[in-house]
Amino acid sequence: MAIDMKKKFALDKERLLLGVAGPVIALVTAVVLTSVVLLASGKSPVEPYSIMFTQATYSDVQVLIINQAGMYYLAALAVAIGFRMNLFNIGVDGQYRLAAVVAAIVGAKVALPGILQIPLLILVAMLTGAMWAGIAGLLKVTRGVSEVVATIMLNSIASSLIGYLYLPSVFGVQVGNNKTTGTMHKSGWFPGINMGEAGEIYGFVVIAALLGVAYWFVLNRTRFGFDLRATGASESAAAASGVDAKRMLLTAMLVSGALAGLAGLPLLLGDTHTYSLTFPTTIGFQGITIALLGRNSPVGIAFAALLISWLEKASAALDLQGYDKEIAVIMQGIITIAVVVSYEAVRVWGQRRQQRRVGIELAIAAGENTSELKKEVAA
Amino acid sequence: MRRVSRIALAGTATVALAASLSACGGTSSDAASKSSGGKDKGLAISFDVGGRGDQSFNDAAYEGLVKAQKTFGYKTTSQEPTDGETDADKTARLVALAKQGYNPVIGIGYSYAPAISAAAKKFPKTTFGIVDDSQDQAKNIADLVFSEQESSYLAGVAAAEATKTKTVGFVGGVDVPLIHKFQAGFLQGVHDTDPKVKVLSQYLTQTAQEGGFASPDKGKTAAEAQIEKGADVVYHAAGLSGQGVIQAAAAKKVWAIGVDSDQYKQKALAKYKDYILTSATKNVSQAVFNLAKSVHDGKPESGIIRGDLKSGGVGLADSNPKFSGNDAIQKAVKAAEADIISGKIQVNSK
Amino acid sequence: MHALVGENGAGKSTLMKILYGMQKPDEGTIAVDGEQVTYSSPADAIARGIGMVHQHFMLADNLTVLENVVLGSEKLYGIGGKARRKIAEISERYHLNVRPDALVEDLGVADRQRVEILKVLYRGARTLILDEPTAVLVPQEVDALFDNLRELKAEGLSVIFISHKLGEVLSVADEITVIRRGTTVGTAVPAETTPRQLAELMVGSELPTPETAESTVTDRPVLTVEGLRLDAEGGRPLLDDISFTIHAGEVLGLAGVEGNGQTELIDALIGLKHADSGTIALEGDEITDWGTRKRRESGIGYIPEDRHRHGLLLESPLWENRILGHVTEKPNARGVLIDIKAAQADTRRIVEEYDVRTPGIDVTAASLSGGNQQKLIVGREMSHHPRFLIAAHPTRGVDVGAQAQIWDQIREARREGLAVLLISADLDELIGLSDTLRVIYRGKLVADADPATITPEELGSAMTGASAGHLEHEEEGGDSVPAARKPQPEDES
């Protein structure tokens, strides 16, 4: 029994090691290569990092990082749930923007008490995101259209649709040179966590964290989650196990879209209270990077979201100190590529290593029971 | 037990980090003000998406910055935005600049409106400027706005006079209110001059993120389509994308009308300059410099500073001899200009 | 002609991959014609005159033989008349009987194999490696193949051939190398060796035989299939008017050369494909329209023919693999939640009871050997007490010890009233384990036979379509054992 526990512990430790090895290799590679770029351009290869680390100690920058990470986290969860079954939802970007517009319009037109208004807005955003992603899902299920192509197209269509929705003649309100959807009723504003001088943390960040827990629970503890992961691990085996591939695909797409629909809400409900031309875009695309970096695990994604947000927010200070803040962009790019490569390498290496270990352990076991004749474990 | 701890880890990672990290450390601007705050600092500008190199108003603003630096001999800085940043990020940037002692701090583009308001409240002694927006008229904010419709009206007059096919084109970079002003003025100018002239209009993209202001290829395709349909004068209000419009016009040997700066004189377009009839200029560089000068002189500008035909903030360039030498066009344009300045002609801005 | 024998998983394929440059050795050397070589890819091996005929053919179905042969080596003889002449010449010299203009999709398995051999020769191979060339052939075709191989040998070429069928090896090889668990355990000369000696060398223990002692067939039909038809996209029938009944306690063996509709039949029974016409009934419930999950929940067990594709999540731990296929059933589920503790405990039980050799249930399925993976699958399926079991090649790639064990488990479940559809390429297994035999050929059930009297050769001839109807053992009939009950096409139901 004691030996059993030890073995189990060793396996757990190994899994942890393998889990961490990928991102660490990617990060180290990114830092090294970025330093090379800095050296090549005749600048200090160290100071930018120290500037960026110093930035992370400032409370106002921390607030910015956390707020941004909250949005990234939701977008990355949406991407990750697709990834878990080999679905590539590139459309998170269009889904969250469209969902934010629709929520903003509903928030401006409908005035219920806060206890109803906020859930209504959340529901509206989720439904909008799910519907938009569902179109791609339906196309894939019925016509076999690749979800990659469909979601990219839907991103463009979403932009046009948004352009239409906030026309002054439709739902829009022009403020100066900016197009907006009008200010939302106060009851739909999501209360934030006041950090004094440092600013305010969006309250919705807490919801993002809770959704992370829900994501973990659904994937690892429910039948649905098992089927979804099985489909991702082996479509053929999942089908043979009784998963209805089409239904699973559509469901996953809808869930992914619903999560994506929430990605814009921290900002919308917590700060701008209107959707305008200046509403941030590309959160969905960053979500893809973050989901990759975080290995689709809720904890990994949280760290990845914080890391990417830190790179973005802390790099702003580089400009003032005479460095180009594009350093952070270079790092992000390298991390993304390095992550893909290192994960695959670590995976293959880990699998070989485990096979070898299983072989050795069984050989030892066989050696102990020499009386037993039947044995066979080949690597 | 293990299960519980894993849930806890998964769930509280973000919140815990949020709370714990935020609890420590001062703000970045506290630190900044400690480390600096010299009197040698002057103008700072913060660019709009696209940043430097857009051959358009970001570049024009930078020109004003360089001029201010040379004239007043103080330290200046210009900051680039990141893609997908929020108002909070913009505010943080402006605050950091103000805290470091820069004055004035100018946000280029209407997207800075909420950020300028927020920053101006925190630093009442610093003068803030914003280009293309006039929502907040606080005492320490200068709203540098332009009557683009007026110069566009003149461009419309010139186009209507120059066209032989009775068809002219308008290419807008992004379908936003700011660009609608260019279109509205141009349309009115054309029609007031010759109601029979048809105007073809197209916007390149719905949002700036899709590259409407930064894609010469898109501009080229759009202009080619309009020329195909018979347009022989094409006016663009499309930033960098306008280069494609001018290229297409030169290739088909029809007129192009430039925007923002005098594009006839731009080095990047020297090859095509013979086909650049004129440009509807918007003197961002002067406006930026003027604000810097007023602060330097101790009499900071405040409220709405409008650049129009009267003040020379907008206008029609006449570097192309074929334009300045064409009497018919010149006569019509001069007459229209006088009427606008006198108020006889009211130009629509929508 | 050199034969390489060993059980599945002994390392034969790995060795061949190294010889052909698909894998790199960690240690040791390879010499070709006395010259030591190292390859970095199969291209290097081809350049050295080594050619490989894979177990799974690598031919493009919708191209002609000529096109398939020329594909990838257009530089050798072009793609026109010269290539055609060369193919004709090779075909002539080794009596391969290949028609250059036939479409590959129209060819039978044996013909395809000859095309593969020709392809290798066309590329100038002097040493041919054949990986389990007889696995997909019926006995008559095996003889023809051996004739071809002898021709090659007579022309001065070398042949290395991999097999675990001892009879064949003894009849055709000049020298035999036996490997076990990755090392050479002996060499033998056929003239001085008996199959039994060879087998003992191979496995270190005695060969078990798949024999079913007494019949347990009842007259209660469990699975009734009637008029089942499944069309390919173009309308060509993959399954045509399939009807059979399997009773409680009966093992129905389905013989057939691979690719004659077995896969489609399995898919139709488990619900991966839906019949175009006909019905499937499970003990009175018509299940034709049911999805896979409902079928499995209602008691259909499934040992897939390709366990990696259909039976396992290779990169998931064993206990998750134990849940696979039974995620809605006890002990894996509690309502809509997964009961991880119970599933893990039950995985430990399966590992114990079914003798799955593993250091723990947290290792991935990929790290187990084929035999242990199969034992896990069998254990998993049996744990849910199926009423009807689809057993497709249940012992393929499984070592001898595990083979016997799996046979025992099938026999035991049959005794308790399980109905089994057994599909296997191993005719001994089919004959030994089945109560009833059917032959599938081009999507139709063309013949039936009594496993008590039939010989592999007779069965083989029906598998090629040479004979149909009820097969009687020809020379005699004296000592026949009580025959299994024939399925009645239509009884109550």
Structure description:
The complex is a heterotrimer of chains A (379), B (350) and C (493). By secondary structure, chain A is mostly helical. Chain A has a single domain (35-350), classed as ABC transporter involved in vitamin B12 uptake, BtuC (Orthogonal Bundle). Chain A is built from 14 helices and four strands. The longest helix of chain A is centred in the last third of the chain and has 43 residues, at 326-368. Chain B has 350 residues and is of the alpha/beta class. Chain B has twelve helices and twelve strands. Chain B has helices at 2-23, 28-35, 57-72, 87-99, 113-122, 148-162, 177-193, 216-228, 242-251, 284-296, 321-324, 327-342, and strands at residues 41-46, 75-79, 105-107, 128-131, 141-146, 167-174, 198-205, 233-237, 255-260, 276-282, 303-307, 314-316. In chain B, the strands form two sheets. Chain B has a six-stranded parallel sheet, sandwiched between helices. In chain B, helix 8 (216-228) crosses helix 9 (242-251). The radius of gyration of chain C is 24 Å and the shape is globular. Residues 476-493 of chain C have low confidence and may be disordered. Classes of the chains: A mainly alpha (379), B alpha/beta (350), C alpha/beta (493). Chains in contact: A-B, A-C. The interface between A and B is large, with 68 and 56 residues. Chain B: It is a lipid-anchor. Chain B: It comes from Streptomyces beihaiensis. Chain B: This is BMP family ABC transporter substrate-binding protein. Chain B: Its main location: membrane.
CATH architecture assignment of the largest domain in chain C: 3-Layer(aba) Sandwich
CATH superfamily of the largest domain in chain C: P-loop containing nucleotide triphosphate hydrolases
Please outline the major beta sheet of chain C.
Answer: 7 strands, mixed
Structural class estimated from helices and strands of chain A:
mainly alpha
Mean pLDDT of chain A: 84
Percent strand of chain C: 15-25%
Number of domains of chain A: 1
Q: Helix and strand string of chain A, N-terminal first?
A: HHHHHHEEEEHHHHHHHH
End-to-end gap of chain C = 56 Å
Largest interface: A-B, 68 and 56 residues
What is the level 1 CATH name of the largest domain in chain C?
A: Alpha Beta
Mean pLDDT over the residues of chain C:
78
Portion in strands of chain A: under 5%
* Overall form of chain C: globular
Specify the overall morphology of chain A: globular
Measure the end-to-end span of chain A: 26 Å
Look up the CATH topology of chain A. ABC transporter involved in vitamin B12 uptake, BtuC
CATH architecture of chain A: Orthogonal Bundle
